Amino acid sequence: MTKPARSPAELRNMFGANLRHLASAYPSISELSRQLGINRTQFNRYLSGESFPRPDVLARICAFFNVDARVLLEPVAQLNGNHELFNTPVLRDFLGDSVRNVTTEMFPDGFYRFSRRSFVNEELMLTGLVLVFRKDSNTYIRGYEPKEAMRQQGLPFDLKNREFRGFVMHQEDGVAAFVSRRNSMTCSFNYLSRVPSYENNFWVGYATRTVRESVTSTRIARMVYEHIGTGTAAALKCARDTGFCGVEDLLPFHRRLLQLDQPFQ
Predict the structure, then answer these.
(1) d(Cα 196, Cα 253) in Å, to the nearest integer?
(2) H-helix or E-strand containing 176?
(3) pLDDT for residue 190 is more than 90
(4) What are phi and psi of 69, to 5 degrees?
C-alpha cells in the first residue's frame, strides 16, 4: 500500500525533530551552527519546524551528520545506517573512519587459522578457525569456540552458543577486533600486527577477554593469525585440527611467533 503524501508542515516537523535529535550530541547550538555555516536564527527555525532549508543547505546538513533524505520522512533514531553507532556525532571523529578503512591489503577476506595459549588451562594451547568478511564497508569476523573450552567453563556447547562474531577496525600499526558471543555473554579484544614473511600471511598480537580476575585462569595471551585463503577445502582441513593441543603440536612458525618462553609485556 502506498503511504499517503506528507504535507509541507509534516515534513518540516519531522525534519525539525530529527535535527533536534542530531544536534543533542553537541553542547552548543551556536558552535554547531558555525560548523554548518548556517545563521543561528535560521538554524533555530529549522529546529522548531518553522522553516525548511534550501536543497543545497539540506545536502550540507545531511553530509555533516552522515544521514540521507529519509530525515524528512522517518525518525532518525529508527534509521538503520550502515555505520550508525560509530558515525554518530559522539564517535564519528574517534571511531567512524577506523571501521571503514580496513582495506583488503591490510587484512584480507577469507579464513584464518589462529593459535594462542588457553585461557582456562595454561598447560594447553588453543587453535581455531575464523572467517573474515566484508559487508556495507564494514569488516566482520566470525567463528566458533571449541566444545571442550565451553565444557570446562560449565557453558552450553551447542553450535548456537559456541558461535562468536565481531567487527574489525583499523589501528595505527595493525588491526583490532572486538568479538562477542551471542547476547554479549563474554567479549574479547584482539590486536594484530602483520609479520613480514615469505607469503606475508601472518599476524601476531594478543587477545584479552572480559572476565573477572581469577587465580586459576588468565585474561590475556599472545595470539597468531595465519591467512589460509578463501577456499573451503583448506578451511575444512584446518577445522579438523582445531581445539586444544600441546605446545609440541603447534605449527613451528606459530610456536616461534608466540614466544612461549617469554613473559607477555
Answers:
(1) 12
(2) strand 174-181
(3) yes
(4) -70, -5
* Predicted confidence (pLDDT) per residue in 110-130, tens digit: 999 999 999 888 889 999 999
Q: So what's the pLDDT on residue 101?
A: 76
CB-CB contact of 197 with 188 (8 Å): no
For residue 265, how far is the Cα from the chain centroid? 25
Is the Cβ–Cβ distance between 223 and 207 less than 8 Å? yes
CA proximity to 186, closest of 226, 224, 156: 156
Non-local CB neighbours of 111 within 8 Å, separated by 6+ positions: 129, 130, 131, 132, 227, 228, 229, 230, 231, 234, 235, 238
Could you tell me the pTM of the whole model? 0.68
| C-alpha to C-alpha distance for 38 and 8, rounded to whole angstroms | 21
Q: In this structure, what DSSP letter does residue 229 have? A: E
